[in-house]
Amino acid sequence: MSAVTNRLNWIKNAADSIAATMLAAMFITFGLQIVSRYLFNAPLGWTVEVCLTLWLWLVFWASAFCVKESDHIRFDVLYLAAPHKVQRIFSIIAALGVIVGFLYSFLPTLDYILFYKIKKSAILRIRLDYVFSIYGVFVLALIVRYSWRLIAHLHPGLYKKYCEKDDQEHDYS
């Protein structure tokens, strides 16, 4: 295994560990809310806010860094029916569409996230720009991910080395 592959695997494992930690924290917080509400008849309002924030972060973090391309939901009947060269063209067009769409939306999204610095969450008083900043991270990660996929599809040697295994991982038959 090359040094680049080792480093990418380490980063992937770290991202998975962060997602697992967020999920565990959400589970513990949810369990605490259940115990507090139903055993002690004393609901804790902050637990709902923590669970919602962790859920938001978990979804965007996992989508950006943990979920493999082949694990995303796809409508690929036409793609799978096409010959390999046409599939490659479809992949290039799709990657360009994602890159252009997210690049076009990035500055307005960043502006909206930064606007939320004037607001705070209801109970814990956390600035909402911190809460929603994960979406900016998600957008940047997708731009980088699809730029890499675009480059890989334009250079078949890179595609075979890094992407082909992910794309063929699921058996659709």
TrEMBL record:
UniProt topology in membrane: Multi-pass membrane protein
Name this protein carries in UniProt: TRAP transporter small permease protein
Major site of localization recorded for this protein: membrane
Any single Pfam family the record assigns to this protein: DctQ
Keyword vocabulary terms for this entry: Cell inner membrane, Cell membrane, Membrane, Transmembrane, Transmembrane helix, Transport
InterPro entries: DctQ (IPR055348), TRAP_DctQ (IPR007387)
Cited function: Part of the tripartite ATP-independent periplasmic (TRAP) transport system.
Gene Ontology BP terms: C4-dicarboxylate transport
Provenance organism: Marinobacterium aestuarii
